[in-house]
């Protein structure tokens, strides 16, 4: 369960005229839609550009000639690492601001943030292809001088590089050692699953996948002009793959794919051309990701829905291959499916650290990928693609939980690690080998089809085998609820009986005393 909590805090963030200024964050509010810092009171001294003051849509702190030293973060609010970076960027900005005011009086460094979802043209100007990106700018300069992510320099090191003078004695008194500190090491994604808080339905799964597909198509271009040749090739392969792998019931995806591929050469020439094609179709009636995806944090919907899209496609390509047995030339091997997915993430997934981690795992053959994803055209090998992706997703969740535990200086228990694995025993009791506490591959594959493919006779048969009901709850869970109710009822009756017996005994004793 997620709770909305209002925090109250008081922090020293700056010093003016030798006196500390106390900033009281009476309410840490939620940011405005499309932003991480704007509209909040806990983000001082970050200035999240909202575009209200420059008619040109080009902020003076990036494009103007009369600028001082400043630091700018380019982010996307859907990016989990940007979300996790937020408190660290604020803390770093506060630390630098405090030291500047204490040791370099009369000088200043300003800290800004740019939402690339809201201000995409600015981010294209600066060729922001991944998030987050943090740059420092010299006074009067419009091009970045220092890349601050993932290694954030010590405040004194930053001040030196931006031309703010601080004498060596002051540095020594502040225990300055010129060694960069890594912020990226402390950035942990919030993508760990939480389905128990927000139960998921198949309708939610398909809805979230459609929204994330549409969002990805509207954010393909990270620079002005056409897509580069390698990105264009990857996009064509990705859409051709999805055309085969996505169930026809998801018409919202298929009509976009068909239209873009039909006019592909024009679509890749500019973002305007691509959007003109996408805008032909009505927007979905429900434009928000489901609660089962967002877990109460709307900006997390995109990455969650993208995983759903990947899983749907992984099951779909097995279905496609099963229906092309008479013409093997139309089939897609497991290794080709994996490579298409890998290249899409490499070119079009904007979260830098997420992308790097996935590509590292893929290219280093983690989970025995190189032996499991084969070019052969037999059913057993097709099935390895959805199974490998399922294991990869669980491995990502486990890694993130371990990173978070390390950040919090605590040790994970076996139960903690079990919680990261999906499906749980409650969701799919038939998926587990009870003797060795491991997954049964065939059962997991059936469960994946139940979760990520439209209902049909095969799905119904799989549900019977795995002991699952149509709405996703297992019979033993229903029986457990009934047993719990009966147990509570029996307990209430027992307590009532004991209370009545106690009252009768007390009344009898009073009668004896009266006599």
TrEMBL record:
InterPro entries on file: ERV/ALR_sulphydryl_oxid_sf, ERV/ALR_sulphydryl_oxidase, Sulfhydryl_oxidase, Thioredoxin-like_sf, Thioredoxin_CS, Thioredoxin_domain
CDD domains, alphabetized: PDI_a_family (cd02961)
Record-level GO cellular component terms: extracellular space; Golgi membrane
Gene Ontology MF terms in the entry: flavin-dependent sulfhydryl oxidase activity; protein disulfide isomerase activity
Domain ERV/ALR sulfhydryl oxidase: 295-416
Transmembrane spans: 477-499
Domain of life of the source: Eukaryota
Enzyme Commission numbers on file: 1.8.3.2
Entry annotated with the keyword Disulfide bond: yes
Gene3D superfamilies: ERV/ALR sulfhydryl oxidase domain, Glutaredoxin
PROSITE patterns per record: ERV_ALR, THIOREDOXIN_1, THIOREDOXIN_2
Thioredoxin domain segment(s): 35-193
Any GO BP: protein folding
Cofactors required: FAD
Protein name: Sulfhydryl oxidase
Organism, as annotated: Fistulifera solaris (Oleaginous diatom)
